[in-house]
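Discussion board: Methods & Data

I've been asked by a reviewer to show the raw model output for two of the constructs in my manuscript, not just the figures. I'm not sure how much to include, so I'm pasting the format here to get opinions. Each protein appears as its amino acid sequence followed by a line of discrete structure tokens. Is this the kind of thing reviewers expect to see in a supplement, or should I convert it first? Here is construct A:
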Amino acid sequence: MLLIAPVTAITMDGERRVIVDAGIAVDGTRIAAVGKATELAARYPLAHRLDGKGMVALPGLIDAHAHGDQSLLRGTTDNLHWVPFLRDWIDPWLGQRSTDDLLAAYRLSLLEMVRAGTTTFLSPNVDPTDDLEALSGVIAQSGLRAVLCRWIEPGGDVDGAVEAVTECDGAAGGLVQAWFGLMVPRQEGDRYDPPFYREVADAARYMGVGVAYHFCSEIEDAAYYQDTFGMRPAVWAEEHGTLGPNVVLINGCWFNDEEIEIVAATGTSVVYSPVATAKMATGVTPVGALLTAGVNVALGTDGGANNNSHDMIAEMKAGCLLQNVTQRRAGALTAEQALELATIGGARAIGRSHDLGSLEVGKRADVVLVDLDRAHSSPVVDPVSNLVYAANGSNVHTVLVNGRVVLRDGVATTVDEEAILSTARAAAARITGRITPRHQPRWPII
């Protein structure tokens, strides 16, 4: 038995209790009790103690849109809209990288995630050429949870994708979930194959897994569907069977009111990625309208290439500010709502609300301790406000996943940080010049 105490526990339970002088008892991989520290100390006198004095405890953050393979491109794709971003950088990267490059990128992303309090992430486009066994091994070593969405497009091998998802689901000792990453048409020239979309959706439902895909992220998406199919994107998705409780739509920046009702009625989740969509000037997810309609909304960072960061704490603040300025109303998205998106919203999106997303008895012991006693994040009058508006990933002190300490005092315990950074630098040097066009800094570096 492990007792984490004393902490201020932001439980994210049904009552949204914030418990001061709290303790969290962990029995193996699950939470055994949450309550006052003195009561739990008396109940579990022989428990090993993890000192949380001065810390805020929260459930592990869930990054529901994280391209873990793009960290080696950080700083090379600034000031690009989505078409040149994909055409000139991402597609060449996918076509020219080696397995070593892929794993170096993921190791770097995972290290960044855990240091900022992310315990679970969804990677929506795992390429068919990627070595899923090797990738699962990297995830197992990191100790984080992953939802790996195996990419499948019209004309692709559906049977092969089904086999890959079947073999990968539950890998890394259960840390890996395997889903389908679906390609749907988004622009002129994309292949259109109605039976294919239903085949993948039916396979996912039969297998009990999910489907994730980028959808209505850019205004060009909405115009393309209207011009090509004579209908709005969500209407198209409903007609082609690609919505439902096991489906995650990424971004959804340009849904109208009718589409929001469709998304709500089908139980489909939407991921809000504020920094990446703002940086690429593609649009803003209508979070307020989605939440009002009853849609489950999660939060995601997107990737190291177009966000330049996997800091979910920073993402929460950006998410609030972007909603406020676009709605021209302070509090359009509150700190409390942002934290819901990053925890229980993410857990619902990946079908894990029964065991992730809050600090409650019986749930998995994914716990993050955040030190707010810093110059930039104190004094603490309201811990939720300070967490979202004043803190960032550097405030994260300790992280547990499945009851295992994977970060202690800001240092990863399961991997060699310097080796990861060194390998990433070498991999980035290898790909320099192979990805076209080669990035040129605007200011001279001499």
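Construct B, same format:
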Amino acid sequence: MSLIIITKGRPAPLRTALECAANALPHDGEVIVVDGDPDRSAEPVVAELRSRHPNVDIRYLTSNPGLTVQRNVGIDAAGGDIVVFIDDDCSFEPGLFEAVSAPYLEAGVLGATGQVIEPPRRRLGSDVHSRLRWLLLGGGRQGTMSSFGARRPIVDVERPRDVEWMPGSFMSARRNVAAEVRFDEQLAEYSLGEDDDFSYRVSRRGRIRYEPSAVVHHQELGWSQMDRRKMDRKQILDRTYLFRKNFPQTHRARVGFAALIVMLCGHRVLNREWSGLRGLLEGMRQARRSAPVRRPEAWRPQSPA
């Protein structure tokens, strides 16, 4: 296995993630840290881990900043049969890699993920495992994507299942598949939805398994530190781009996408997040002016293998 951790200017949480990796990684595994910080703030953290855990195979790479760019650098450098992505603000216990590797023994499995436990949000309607959210999105098979590009929540979190999306804080895939699918570098900087895009395209080639015994704790530092207006403007732009790119533009899908945007606006009003609401409205205006996306042949939805 190749564990890929991308980071930029967050040495303290990275140190925790690397310590977890040193204690949990199989003896034949490797860690690849891809640093997007021009000041190379992660380099001394990696050097410190090497000095305390000389038997851990860890590499330090630099890259232009950006989630998608840095993850592709990690894929290209990986030597393992399976690549595992976690965020630099994640922690986990020994046994994680054994749990996430088990699904790959099943026929046709190209990717796997597990439970991501995050701090509770105080906003109304923000429970990512909410049955109400699942119903508002039209129900359907948990862990799949709707026809308009929205995640259907996993409500029954203790049950293994096939899924069509993986959270960016904990994804894995066969390395050869990841090298072909790759992350879309048109989703720049702190992109939103790059994980949905990558994992959905993997799911069109084969199976992705959700394994609840594989557990990662995610602090969500990036989400809490981002400007709400900028984040919501980018959310609309990235969602629109990915909807046009990955899903047939049927009348029903367009209506569903419009309803999703209305729900997002209602959520911001309900939580009195006026800055976020302004960001959503700005994103809608900008998205209407953007050119249609021509989906490359290799990215068009196909039936899973």
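Answer (T.O., handling editor elsewhere):
This is acceptable in a supplement if you add a one-line summary per construct. For B, something like: Residues 130 and 155 are 6 Å apart (CA to CA).
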